[in-house]
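User: structure tokens for cAMP-binding domain-containing protein, please.
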Amino acid sequence: MNQIDHFLTSDAELAKTHVQRLKFSPKETIYTNEKVHLRNNFVLIKNGIVSLELYHKGKWQFTTFLTPGDCAGIDNFLTPNRTNYNPTKFRLTGAINGEIIIVEKDYFLNHFYANPKLFTIILEKLALHYMYTSYNSHEKNARLCQRMADVTLEFIALSDFQVNENTVIFPYPISAKMFSTYLKAPLSAVSEVLRIWEEKNILICTSDNLLITDYKKLLSFSKMTYLIDEVLV
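Assistant: Done. Predicted tokens:
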């Protein structure tokens, strides 16, 4: 990510006009593209973790977490003569402290045409998100406890958290409502699974974080093992 940042700002004068950096804190709304002119921007996560929400059916809905190397606003690259699709309204909220880079779309493209190898950094993260999205779609009729385990492991892998003595600390609370929205599952059913997992000391949900206290047990509920092995080994 530092390579991309350096490349985009190598011309300091141009960068002042076309590139903006924003630091953020937990629970801070960092960026939203609700205003039409902001849909001409591309957002890169330089460091930290952000929560991505999309505006759907009159309300904001949690979609996923974004980590360093991830991006938002990629649908701004669709051209009007190719599709009638309008870019999705989204907003980014800090999960932990970090920084984002906001780049004008055309400025970004002009730079990356000059150094296409740097695209691989972004493409790898996009491919990873696509891989998990495809898997979740395939498993949409699986038992809820499996799907919740799958998603929890997905968030851990995407955030590059390491398993330490069978525990993992996700430094941001993941609520039952977030699971429910992400999986399109009844909130009551999600809450019941979380209650059972807490009783069995598999995880602990607090107002500050999600603590996985028995990673191996959580893994046993999931069928995503082959994806997790590829990412975490």
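User: Anything notable?

Assistant: The mean pLDDT is 87.
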